[in-house]
């Protein structure tokens, strides 16, 4: 299985790419760990204290993923990751 992931904001800027492909990610947590290993440029934003960073917004098929629930992924899922936005 191959998941295509769209990056937004600072994740896209740091990775230098808008789309990445991640192989064999069965859950959202698995996807985050594999992506962090695959793209070291964004790993510190994705992983905090050896866990997926709950500040990262994850959208699956245009619905926001809630970190309190585990979510299985399919190859047809549309996945978007967005770094937190701050400013004033």
From TrEMBL:
Gene3D superfamilies: 3.10.20.30. It holds the Pfam family ThiS. SUPFAM superfamilies: MoaD/ThiS (SSF54285). This is MoaD/ThiS family protein. It comes from Lentisphaera profundi.
């Amino acid at each position: 299985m191959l998941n295509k992931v769209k990056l937004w904001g600072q994740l896209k800027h740091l990775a230098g790419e808008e789309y990445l492909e991640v192989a064999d990610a069965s859950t959202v947590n698995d996807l985050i760990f594999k992506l962090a290993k695959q793209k070291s440029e964004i790993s510190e934003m994705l992983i905090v204290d050896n866990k997926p960073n709950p500040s990262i917004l994850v959208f699956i098929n245009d619905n926001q993923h809630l970190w309190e629930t585990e979510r299985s992924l399919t190859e047809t899922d549309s996945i978007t990751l967005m770094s937190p936005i701050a400013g004033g």
